[in-house]
């Protein structure tokens, strides 16, 4: 019997029917039906992202919902996942085949095509929509891949169809880091009379600082090694996070000739100035949302230095002071980004397949869809230092806290929890 014949009429999914945790529900909903230009995919693994908390808190006023009535049209949450095609619409049969596996870029950079009447003002002025918001999400057993996703190129093929499902699911958060680092730029000249060139990325042989060693900060530190900085400094007040960073980075840094330093923020200025002979940091990544730390970073930049405001600041406490003389005389740059696009996810799955980053370093918990609401509460309460990966097609299981994850662990975990027929 093929996969299409086994698709159930109902599936398990996490839905939001309004604002607040009280309007989250894990339960059975109809399995999506597809049109001729749509795809149906099985969700093999799904990550739980903190961005869901904004949807839960804001409901129809969220920028991606634009008045969408959740009570009338509940949203299926989940913007991170790995999928396998199980059914292909007739109009797409020449492009897609059942059994193919993909990553998904949830930020869909096209205007809504379907259901425009469900948005405020018939979706007038909306140029972007998102998976896990008004497009069905991946905290579910199946997902309909709609015209919007395909039009934006957000269904991303894998460089290796054997990639573990959790690794593919991790591509979205990792792609945000890759997108951010690609926004760094330094001006270089090959000679006195040569033209200036802007080179993207972290400065080779320079001094790079990552302030904040949570999971996203540790991703930044690991991916920074792609550019071979001379010195990489990771700063955090939590000793356990620094130890995790050192465990991830030590072997990789040695192979690319990078010196590592793990310090308390109280010692950061002295460390930066010491290793740079008083010049300052060439690249400074703020992987946390604390205003005073953002402000401090601006004062620690070298000539042509870059500060990346990766960690967003809360509304009302988000204004920084910028010394215009630093921009004018020392030519410093301030960059930032909010997520990535399909090209970043494509680059990320390539980096994972090539071993440039180990996504298992950032998995903190694994479980079934039944754990989704509890995991969101843990994220809200800052009890989870890493991603939770949920497997939609296994039987209900307690959430397992882990210190990393890999393909063999995934296979054993899934095999032990295959539901009875």
CATH superfamily of the largest domain: Medium-chain alcohol dehydrogenases, catalytic domain
Strand content is 15-25%
CATH class of the largest domain: Alpha Beta
Q: Label the structural class.
A: alpha/beta
Quaternary organisation: single chain
Integer tally of domains: 2
Distance between the termini: 14 Å
- Taking all Cα atoms into account, the compactness measure Rg is 22 Å
Known CATH architecture of the largest domain: Alpha-Beta Complex
Main beta sheet: strand number and arrangement? 8 strands, mixed
Number of strands: 21
Number of H/I helices = 13
Helical fraction:
25-40%
- Choose one word for the global shape: globular
User: Which fold name is given in CATH as the topology of the largest domain?
Assistant: Quinone Oxidoreductase, Chain A, domain 1
Mean pLDDT: 95
């Amino acid at each position: 019997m093929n996969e299409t014949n086994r698709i159930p009429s109902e599936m398990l999914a996490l839905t939001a029917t309004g604002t607040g945790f009280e309007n989250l529900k894990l339960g059975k909903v109809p399995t999506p039906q597809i049109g001729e230009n749509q795809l149906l995919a099985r969700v093999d693994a799904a990550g739980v992202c903190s961005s869901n908390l904004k949807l839960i808190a804001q409901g129809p006023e969220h920028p991606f919902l634009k008045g969408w009535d959740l009570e009338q049209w509940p949203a299926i949450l989940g913007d991170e996942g790995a999928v396998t095609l199980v059914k292909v619409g007739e109009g797409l049969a020449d492009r897609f085949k059942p059994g193919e596996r993909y990553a998904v870029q949830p930020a869909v950079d096209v205007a809504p095509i379907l259901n425009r009447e469900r948005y405020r003002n018939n979706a007038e002025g909306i140029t972007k929509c998102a998976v896990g918001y008004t497009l069905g999400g991946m905290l579910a057993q199946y997902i309909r891949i709609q015209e919007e996703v395909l039009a934006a190129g957000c269904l991303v093929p894998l460089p290796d169809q054997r990639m573990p499902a959790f690794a593919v699911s991790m591509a979205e958060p990792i792609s945000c880091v890759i997108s951010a680092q690609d926004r760094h730029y330094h001006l270089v000249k090959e000679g006195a009379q040569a033209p200036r060139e802007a080179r993207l990325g972290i400065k080779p042989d320079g001094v790079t600082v990552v302030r904040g060693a949570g999971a996203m900060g540790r991703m930044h530190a690991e991916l920074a090694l792609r550019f071979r900085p001379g010195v990489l400094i990771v700063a955090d007040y939590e000793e356990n996070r620094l130890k995790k960073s050192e465990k991830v980075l030590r072997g990789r840094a040695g192979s690319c000739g990078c010196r590592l330093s793990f310090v308390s923020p109280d010692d950061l200025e002295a460390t930066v100035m010491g290793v740079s002979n008083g010049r300052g940091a060439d690249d400074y990544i703020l992987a946390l949302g604390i205003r005073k730390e953002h402000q401090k970073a601006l004062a620690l930049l070298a000539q042509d230095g870059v500060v990346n405001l990766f960690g967003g600041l809360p509304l009302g406490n988000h204004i920084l002071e910028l010394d215009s003389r630093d921009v004018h005389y020392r030519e410093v740059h301030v960059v930032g980004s909010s997520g990535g696009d399909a090209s970043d996810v494509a680059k990320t799955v390539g980096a994972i397949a090539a071993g440039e980053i180990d996504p298992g370093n950032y998995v903190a918990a694994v479980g079934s869809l039944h754990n989704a609401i509890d995991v969101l509460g843990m994220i809200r309460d800052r009890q989870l230092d890493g991603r939770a990966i949920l497997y939609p097609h296994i039987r209900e299981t307690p959430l397992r806290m882990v210190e990393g994850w890999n393909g063999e662990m995934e296979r054993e975990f899934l095999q032990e929890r295959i539901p009875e027929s």
